[in-house]
Design a protein that fits this description.
Shape: globular
Strand content: 25-35%
Distance between the termini: 38 Å
Radius of gyration: 14 Å
Largest sheet: 5 strands, antiparallel
Helix content: 10-25%
Length: 122
Amino acid sequence: MPRASATSHELTRIELLAGLSGQTLALLAKRMERQEVAPGTTLVREGEPGDRFYVVFAGMLSVSQKDRGNQGVLRPGDYFGEVALTMPVPRTATVTAITPAVVASCDKATFDELLRPLFADD
């Protein structure tokens, strides 16, 4: 099955990304891999090395930590995976689809080039 790209329109619905220039959004959309996820699918696992950044287009995903249990729910417009890409730490939580979901993700090189400035003032 061919890998689908995200669209600029989908990305503008993510508040974090909405302020990016049209050119940056178009480039990001081309590089982001869109993925439909079945309920129960784990996208990132706590403790593993992180190499992708994700945004949520549809569905609900749970965020949990071994020591602290359920940490909340991600919904359309949310994102995850940035901590392991901005700091030299492994994944800080496990993210699992609760419902059928649609996400898009990019690799670390794309994150560093196009998205890291969005996290610079944290």
